[in-house]
Every structure is written in structure tokens, then in C-alpha cells.
Protein 1
Amino acid sequence: MSSPEVTIRLTAAQALVRYMINQKVRLDDDTLVPLFAGVWAIFGHGNVAGLGEALYGVRDDLPTFRGHNEQSMAHAAIAYAKSMNRKRIMAVTSSIGPGATNMVTAAALAHANRLPVLLLPGDVFANRRPDPVLQQIEDFGDPTVSANDAFRPVSRYWDRITRPEQLLNTLPRAMSVLTDAAECGPVTLALCQDVQTEAYDYPQAFFRETVWQQRRICPDAGELERAVAVLGKAKTPLIVSGGGTLYSGARDVLADFAATHRIAVAETQAGKGGLAWDHPMNVGGLGVTGTSAANELAARADVVLGIGTRLQDFTSGSRALFANQDRTLIQLNVTTFDGQKHGAQPLVCDARVGLEALHDGLGDYVSPKDWQDRTSLAMANWQQAADGVMAASNAERPSDAQVIGVVNRVIDDTATLVCAAGGLPGELHKLWRVPGAGGYHAEYGYSCMGYEIAAGLGVKMAHPHREVVVMLGDGSYMMANSELATSVMLGLKIILVVLDNRGFGCINRLQMGCGSEPFNNLLDDARHSVPSAIDFCSHAQAMGATAEKVDGLSDLKAALERAKASPVSYTIVIDTDPLVSTEVGGTWWDVAIAEVSHSENVRSARKSYDNAKTKQRLGD
């Protein structure tokens, strides 16, 4: 007769955090570390008495961090996971109602970028006895619906915990999603607030230490053979390196592969930094925000090898960039979903393993000499153009590119540059020269304004010994800035470089490019009774940071040196020109323009748009 199972009586919330503590991850260097680096929390009536009580009890084993905004906390957690190449993660908890729905945007960001985060919003009472409770959303026809159903389309895994014992099934499933290279993304466990406090006799075995390690998917023999056959005959090949290159730790393998076979490498926003900027085969950013070199080669390439990229429209020039009518696209990706995009020939596998297999299969193949020469010439021309647009000047309001040039020259090679939305990611994708691994952190899958400052904090938590420099516009600063105060509170210094162009300069330029008049984007073109005069320095100082405004590029260098020497978070504000962007490089982007308009400029822009659409390859 078997002995009874050993159990321990815990609340559902206590069981959840105990389970989290016992999840470990084995890194590539064989180090064993906790999977969860901590929990971000803003407490309310939906989580303070349940999960809050449980977190207090394990505060020395599972740190709890307090933020100032639920969306920003989640952004910090997501940036942490991205900086750790998706190997370690954080959780974020909120109360029900607005605290929960504040995190929906962050969930969407994580989903678009395939980044892991565990979201633990409080939920309504499972027993429904006090319904409707404070902050409850009532569906007139379905009492099972709550505000947390909004997380369903932006979560890779979603569950509502209405019984304590449901954790026995849902937690292992949640962990498998968070740690799987192909499924990776946000997990939402909506925690009914009464259930958080209810006790259950959990099996002791449920809390045994579990070690996770991302599996490295090997390529199918047939897919590999077909990829080698196509690539081995390529006359004008091009590699497109995405975030998957970094997440799989394939940086060194890619550098060797490109150098050996003499194949140029263009980078997506997520893949930037996969090669050092001065690697002889690195032709820089690709697509709408890409270099002239990368886009010239992309238009001629007969074989395009995508590595760990989801081929969004900015990368593919809205499906018009890869213009060679005879080109073949090979998509090396851990997911079948991405591997078959754009009519690609799939190679479903881990990036590092796949590159190693391709390297072996290609043998002594190298691209033709004339293609190598074209690559070198295109890159030399681009570097000359980039040097020109980044050169310092005495302009009263410098361009974003000129500010980038100064910052890039001053900060250390080991620093991480963080960006997300507006015009800066476009300029940085083209111009920022990444010297080594981890030097560039862009969120451009969701292009979320307000990600930047919180992300800088998350990057600093992942790499506390790195200098973290956040470049953002005044619009993004105003969108979400509260975690600057959190960085001060936690003693995690970040440097902000705020480019003040008095509004949403990027969209203003897009608006004008579509034939419209400037309207409602720059502060001076918006409806107002009192002219805007925002003092960013005083605002940053009020949150505990050191701050200064510089008069121009000549003062920016000295300010950056002071920021590097500062022990606390530092904000530098500089006025910039909202109308100037780097003209060289880039490619067409499909932004629909009004088919009927009273404006001749709009009608003219529509004609150009209709002509450009004819170059799209919609069959693949």
C-alpha cells in the first residue's frame, strides 16, 4: 500500500511565489541561476492582501520592486528579459481595473517582440458574492468576463485562476511558454482576489527545484539540404540578421560565417549589434530606416537568408525592397510561423545551430568577387555619408544625427544605447556604431512611446556595471517618465539624452511627406491658449536626478562627461530641429494616403503612392 502524498497547506498566492522561487535556468556557460530575478508590484485591493502578503514572506528570496506606473514597470521587466537574451525574466503584478489594463500595452509590446514577462493582474471575486466590486467591468451578457480578458489577444498564454488547485496545471504550462524559444512571449495569469487568499493542500513535490534550459532546435535534414543548395549557388547573397541571432548567442558564429563565405550582413532593429559595426561584412541597418549600402544590396540580392527575423514592413520595405525578380528567400527561424513568411523557403531551427550547419554544408563557398567589391564600395560610400550627417556644426538647433554623432563618440564602448519610438530609432538604426555585444537596445516591434526610460532601468538591472544611455524625444519623455524616479530610488543610474524638438517631430515629417500641412504634432501647430514651455530639467531634478540643458553640440560633449562621472541618474536636454532627418539611406514605406482630397499636395502624394505600390511583391 503506497504512502499518502506529502502536502503543505498554502494560499494560492503563497504557492505561486514558492513555485516561482524554485524555478531555475541553466545558462549557456552552465551557470544555474533563478529564472525570476524579481517581481514588480503596485498593490491595490485586488492583490495587496493575497499576493502582497505572499511576496512579503519571501522578500529575501524573491525581491519585490515598487514602480510608479504599471505599464512602465512591465516595460522595465520586458527590457530586463531582452537584455538577458530571454534567459531570465521578471513578473509584474497589479490590482484589478486600471492597474491591470495599464499593463495591456506592455503585454502587446512583449507579444510583438517575442519577449517573456509574467503578468499577474488581480481579478474579480471568483465566488461573485460581492459583485460588482470596485473597478469591476460588467459584461451585461457574460458574467465570466472581466477587464483582464483584454489580455487574451496580447498574451501567448492566458488563464484566470478561479480555484487554488488550478495552479498545479497552469504554472508548468506558463513556465514552458516563458522559457521556450519558439513560443516565447507574455504570459498572463489573472488572479481572482478571493482565490489568492484561499488555502489548499499542495503536494510538496510540486515545489521541487525545476531547471529550464532553452532547447536548441536542429534543422530538418531536407530543409537544410535545400537551403545549402540554394545558398551555394548564390551570385548576390545577403544575410538579414534579426533578434534571434542575439537571443541564440549566435553572434560569434555569424561573424565567422559572414567572413568565411564573404556574405554581407544587414541588420534589423532587434538584430543590430549582431556584428560589430566595423566588421568587414556588416552593411548596417536594413529597410525603411536602413543604410544606403544595405538597401542597395537588398534590391539586387538573388538569395536572402533571414536569421531570426519576423520580416516586418520596416525591414522588407513593405515587401518592395527585395526587388530581384529571381530572388529566393530562406527564413532561418525557430518558429514555423516566421519561417514561412513572404513565401520563404523555411529552415526551422535555432540560429546558432542552423548557421553552424549551413557553414558545414557550404564548405569552401564564397560569394563572387564582383559582389564582394560592390559590397565594399557601397559600405565605403555609406560610411562617408554617415560621417557627413553626424559631423558637428554650430547650428542653433542641431539635427538628431548630429546629436547622435556626439553621443556615439563620447560614451564608452561598453555602454548600452536604449531607444524606442519617434525619429530617433530611424536615425540610430542607420547611424549608431555598435562596438560590441549588448551595445544597442531598441524596441521597434511595437514602437512604443514611453518605453525608453523604463527600459533603461530594466537594462541597468540586467547589467548594473554597464553605462546605460537612453536617447528619446520630448514627446516620449512626456508620455512616460516616472521610472526615472525609480532609478534614483534603487540607486541604478541611467543617463537620459532628451532631444527637444517641441513635439512629435517624426510624425510631423511623415504628415508633411504625405502631402498634408503640419497639424497637431508639433506643439506650436496644436490648439492651445498658452504657449508650451516645459522645463524638462526642473522636472527631472524634482524626481531626484541631476539635470542640465545644453546650448548646442559644443556643450553636449562636456555634459556627457559630467553625466558619466555622476553617481546618480542624469538628464541632458538639448533643443533639436524637428524638420531635419538623414536623407541618405532608407526605402519606401507603405503609408496609405488619402485617395480624395482638396489639397493638390495630397493628390500628388497619392499618385506617387499608387506608383510605389506597384513594386510590392504580394504573391510572396
Protein 2
Amino acid sequence: MIVQGIESRRPSFPFRAASWVVAGLCAATLTHCSFFTSRDGAYTGYYLPLTVHLRSDPSIAGAQLTYQDACGQAQSFPIAAPLQELLKRKTGRVFEKVLTGETGSLSGSNGSVDTVLGLAQVDLAIPRKANRRYPVTVTLGLDFAYKTLDGAVLYSKKIQSIGRGEVEVTEGSCDVKGLNAIAYEAMDLVTDGMAVQLGTSSKIHEAAQARKADRSQDVSWPSSATVPVSLPVDQPATVIFRAIVRHENRDQVLRSGEAVAIEVEVKNEGPGTARAIDLLVTATPTSIERIPSVVAVGDLQPGEVKHLTLDGKISRATGVLQEELTLMLRAGSPSVQLPSAKKFLVVMKPGSAAEAGTQPVDIDQLLKRPSLLKQPKAIGIAVGVGQFRESAIPSVKYAARDAEAMATYLKSIGGIPPERVRTLVDSHALKHDLAEVLEEWLPQHVDSTTVVYISVTGRGVVQPTTGAVSIMPFDGTATSGARLYSLRRLQESLAKLPIQRAVVMLDLSLEPVLGTEATGAKAPLWEQEGSGKVEIMWMIGNRSVQEAHNYDKGRHGLFTYQLLKGLGGEADLDMNGTILAGELCVHTKGQVLKMAREQYGNKQEPLCLPGPGQGALVRLQPVARFK
């Protein structure tokens, strides 16, 4: 199917032929009621030049969820602390500075963000106690408003988000297990929604521009009598765009689980430069997963054309639905004339039983037998960068899907509390984001008993003279080391922490620095010196300068696919019910070597550091337990 939204008052212009790319898929079992899956700030930070006071209604401080347990007794648990922490974190990605406190004074700020908890509901029915899992949804509503110092409301909104999943009940207990994870996801999603609404409000942007102008007037300039000053004036810019929605079956109907791509072409037809152009994507709930709500287009010079391809997956549909997808542009300058929004009406249907039978085995479906491993002090960080700000950088097909699947496994199989797992994906994995999570957030949540798990999927750059390897974030470039995040920096950050040990899993396609592809370049350097008192296990999916393989049937990178299969039970080499870090790496290495040789006819060699027999206790770290 090709569904087009064309602005009739503008002439069309040639649209490039785009090859189909199977979408990166969302691995989590929960969906977002406001259309887009988001994990821990999965939106681009806006950082508007405003200082705001975050004020919470008593309903936030006393927030709790009530439900009936397996014995029919009323139960409740508080959600105030994680909700308040998420509100502060997400608001901090919209505004330059966030003040908190109980006082009602707005001194030192430009305004306030007032929040009130709306609907807080758990939909769970347990007809009888049995060893089984039951579906549950957690619905959270949030009312919020941005107010100026004089009390004027610039923006207000009421939103809701839904977390969906399953809880576990055993025959001999009244306890309901797993509800807290679903509640946290709902909180994460509704605070993401608030941040996107605030960050895209035109009136708040106008206030930020006014504040920025005020700051510029505070700068002391030399007298114009002695130093003539000529201030450039931006010429107007006129931006138009065209969009096409494509999907696999091309039969005019979108079906559950089907891959979909939105292709967008943006052009500047004006004489001036169009600055800071963003594409905003919104839709009716539960339509498409893995499509970001804000995509940076960047600056457009006069006559310049840019192309974007957004890959996603159709969410599960229980019946025939008609959905509306809306695309619109925004600009960082008032001199840019923007087109009207484009809207697409699409029909969704559940996949047929025959279609379901032809789907490959999905390792993202969590095991029915849960892992017995509990790691309440552990930390999980999953990073997946498959798209890059510079369109010339090749994409990594399943990087985002890999990261979200790994985050889900760390919580379910690894037994890490959901609030201690962070996920950074694509445009939400800027170099600044990596530094914030690894060097600011992580040190605040560890102690001497903490085990840190870090997974990174995407693209890496190798320095030809030293072999040093760096991770390429969303805003990275192969020509500038300043826009990369080096493994040496990662290792040094971990070495400074008072933690017990760390396990780092890297699934990277490696390339040399641009322009240094000549022979004689040094091989990638993986063994980091100065590991200090922290034992680090490095599970490296691709030790050489080459593209890492994708496993299309499993819809993951080959190395990550085998890691997840291993965590699911296949890496239990001694059949004792416990999977150790060493076992996981040895199993994954063997499977990747075998599949690369048999299915792709070439070599992809993983690496385990420290290797077997080197006496490292980190190799004995349990990563899953089933007995």
C-alpha cells in the first residue's frame, strides 16, 4: 500500500526511490496509549532557555495504585517517589533549568509547570488462584500547565498513557507479581507525553525566544560610534514537504506485526535559510511502534532537499480500526513559512491465523517460566543507535529493536528493577545523553554490591593509528572525534565507580575514520588498560573492521539475537539452571561463528574478555537462573 499526503497548494517535486527497510521493532510487552513507544526519555531534548519551577499537586505526593490480589483482597502500593523523579527528569529535558520545592514562590524562575495526577487505575481480573499469568493494564492520567510569573496559562493539557502486560500468580499465594514494572512503564510513558507536549508548544517557544532576546540585550557591546555593527537579517524561507507511507503487504490494509515505513522529503523553496527544522509525528493510540514523535531535520539551505525514512511496526489490533497519522513541521526561527499538517487515514486489522503461523519465532516474547534471579541493586543500560543525524552515515537495521529487547530481558530475565534500567534509542542517544546516563545518573544509583550491565548496538569507529574504538552516537560523525564516545571513556567511568563488577555487551559494525581506509591500519583495540579495582566482562560481537551481520528472520542483529537466546536458557552449558556471564559469552560466540559461516559465507568473530581460564570472577557472575 502507498498512502500519500500531499499539500495541494504546493507543486510536487521528484521523490526519491527508496528501498524497503524492515522496521526496527519494539521489544517491550507494553504499549503506549499516545501512539509511540518510549523508554526513559525517548524524545529529543528541547532545553528551552527558561527556568521553571516544577510544582506538584498533593495528588502526586500521595499517588498510589489500588487493585485486588489473587485472594480478592484490596491492595495498594505507592508510586509517588518514582513519579516525582520522572516528572523532574523529563521536565529537565524540556527546559534549561528546573527548580523544585514545596514553596509556592516562583522567585528565580520564568514560570512554573504545575502537575496534577488524573486517572490512576489498574484493570486486573483474577478469577482463581492458579499457576498462571493474567493480562493487566495500568492507566495513568496527568493534568499539567505552564504558567508565567503573573499566573497566565500559556499551555495546558490532560493526557493519559496505558501500560499493558501480564502479572504472575501462583496457586499457593495471594501475591501478584510484576505489577510494579507495568506501573513504572505507564509513569514513564505519561511523563514522556508531557515533555513532548510542553516542548512543542508554540506559545512556550515564543516565551523562550523572548527570554533569549532579553539575554542578548544584557551583553555589553562597544559603542556604535566607535565600532560600526551590521546585524544580519534572516531572509524568509518557505519549507514544503511530501510524505508516503509504505508497508510490506501493499494491500491497502495494515495488519498486526507488519513492518511499515514513512518516507518524507523536505524542501526549502525560499531565499533564506530554514533553521532548526523538526518533523513532528502524532497519531491515534496504538497504531505504530518505534516511530519517534520528534525527528530533527536540521537546517535547510535555499533549494536544499532532505529525505527521511522512519521505520516502525504495526501494533497489535483486536479488531478493525481506522487510525489517523499526522505529520507536521516546526522551525526554530519565525522567518520560516511552514506548510499545513498532513493527515493519513489508515485501516488496521489483526493478522490472520495463517499469517501468524508463517511468522518467525520471536525471541522477544518472554519465557513463560520466569527467571528466578533477583538483582535489586543491579543497573541496566541499553543503547541502540540505528539512525544518525547525518544522512550519509549508513543505518544499523535493528539497533533500536536490539536495545529495547535487551532492556526487557535485563528486567525480566536478569531480575533488575524496572526503575534501574535505562534505554537510549536513536535520536535520544546523543553524546550528551550517553554522558548523562553513564557519568551522572549511574554514579547516583550504585554501591559496592552493584553489578552494572551495559548493552550497546550500533556503529563504531576505529582510529587507524591506535586501534582505539569509539561508539558513534546519534549526533556523531566519523570525521570528528569530538562527536564520538570512546570505549576508553566508558571504561574509565566504570573504574571510578564503587561497584562490584560490570558486564559490557557490544554489537557494533566497525569502520575506520573517514579517509583512512588505506591498508596498514591498526586492528581494533579491545583490551582497555587501567581497569582498576572493577572487574569488567567485555562481550564483543564483532572484533574486526566490518559490518556486523543482521539476522532478518529473528529481526535482530545476529550477535544480540544469540545473546537473547542464550539469556533465555540456551547458554546454560552445564545444565545446572544458572547461566553465568562466561557461559553466555562462550555460547554466543560459538553460535555467531557458526551462523556467519553457514548462512552468510564469511566470518564474524565475537570476543570474550577476559577469556576462559583467566581466573576472572566476573565470568562467574550469574545473568539468569531457572532452577
